[in-house]
Specification:
Length: 384
């Protein structure tokens, strides 16, 4: 069966160019970069090159890039590292719609007596900046607010938020996992001290990420061990994956503007097509906010996201649902709930996320099939 992949916020296809860039490090260049002999010396240079590419995508200095194993590790490292480096402060600020890589790291500190404040969002998914301003006056150790939401694609005004945090004298981290490679992600435009990215969201493999750490940021080392990454993260470097991330960042930098325009055009076509054919009781979550060019989160009244996914999957279409099965009932995700989407809509939220490889024909196929699925499910829904 032909397949139609619309789940790129979950993970992306590894670019063929990235695979080519990684292969030599499995076959020939397998030395340990810390070794003094030539096996090690040979590969060190490629780590430096990859670090330069990641830094170039982010407009950073290569010395400010720390390689990690994933976005989750980058997020954990930022939160733990900043909190541990400021033992005199006992507050942490984050948002209610963060990925659990940030939320769980922050909530962990509650057990140790920290006050963790989760800033709310409005119905369009936008952060409550008044609440943030009030909370900042109480001097948090770290503020971790994402650059764009993985479920809705809603973009937060990180430049403004970062300025507020810096004025309050706190450390600012942003989870940029969903923006890197999709929209310009330049640290000189964002007054952040730390920024996380993840390889598998931008056509590198799973299992590699990076944390940007602005020079001078106080950060306690999270993964203790050897002196790799200038003592900021122990562990022998994952050379093939680092090379792959470097190549993925280079590709993203070269093609970003054109790809973003194309994804936005296809995403808009997808939404218009679906709205035209299912006009009744269909909402685009976060649709009134600035959004990532590739993400569409649609709520269909009266039906369940899981049922939609099941029917889509039968037709070869891979998307994702905004609900998670908790204790036998379908609970809308924490993001959709935080936005206050009414429960009869929230249960039917479905995310379509595109990539540079998404084609017009694939979008047309989805537009053709979603309305008939929605109609069929509504016919048997007790709510409609
Ligand atoms: N942060 C965001 C916003 C994400 O979307 C994800 C993955 O879905 C992560 C962090 C975690 O990244 P990783 O899967 O590389 O650990």
């Amino acid at each position: 069966m032909k397949t139609f992949y619309f789940d790129n916020n979950a993970t992306t296809q590894v670019a063929p160019e990235v695979i080519d860039a990684m292969m030599p490090f499995f076959r020939d260049l397998w030395g340990n970069p810390s070794s003094m002999h030539h096996f090690g010396g040979q590969v060190k240079h490629y780590i430096d090159k990859a670090r330069e590419e990641v830094a170039a995508l982010l407009g950073a200095d290569p010395a400010e890039i720390v390689f990690t194993s994933c976005g989750t590790e980058s997020d954990n490292m930022a939160v733990y590292g900043a909190v541990e480096a400021a033992p005199e402060k006992v507050r942490i600020i984050t948002s209610r719609v963060e990925h659990y890589a940030v939320l769980s790291a922050c909530r962990h500190f509650k057990k140790h007596g920290y006050e963790v404040v989760e800033i709310g969002v409005d119905g369009d998914g936008q952060l409550n900046l008044h609440q943030l301003k009030d909370e900042l006056s109480k001097g948090p150790a770290v503020v971790s607010i994402m650059a764009a939401n993985n479920e809705t694609g809603v973009i937060f005004p990180i430049e403004q938020i970062g300025r507020m945090v810096k004025q309050a004298g706190s450390v600012m981290h942003t989870d940029a996992v969903q923006i890197a490679g999709k929209i310009p992600t330049k640290v000189h435009d964002m007054p952040v001290d730390m920024l996380s990215i993840s390889g598998h969201k931008l056509h590198a493999p799973k299992g590699i990420g990076a944390l940007y750490v602005r020079k001078g940021t106080r950060l306690q080392t999270f993964l203790l061990g050897g002196h790799q990454e200038e003592g900021r993260r122990g562990g022998t470097e994952n050379v093939p994956y680092i090379a792959g991330l470097g190549r993925a960042c280079e590709l993203a930098r070269d093609n970003l503007a054109g790809e973003a325009d194309n994804m936005a055009r296809l995403r808009d076509k997808l939404e218009q097509g679906i709205l035209q054919n299912c006009p009744k009781d269909t909402l685009i979550n976060g649709g009134k906010s600035p959004r990532l060019p590739n993400t569409s989160n649609i709520s269909f009244f009266g039906i369940e996201g899981e049922a939609i996914l099941y029917h889509l999957s039968d037709l070869g279409i891979a998307a994702s649902s905004g609900s998670a099965c908790t204790s036998g009932s379908l609970e809308p995700s924490h993001v959709i709930r935080a936005m206050g989407v009414p429960p009869e809509h929230a249960a039917g939220s479905t995310r379509f996320s595109l990539s540079r490889y998404t084609t017009e024909d694939e979008v047309d196929y989805v537009i053709r099939h979603v309305p008939e699925i929605v109609e069929r499910l509504r016919e048997i829904s007790p709510f409609v």
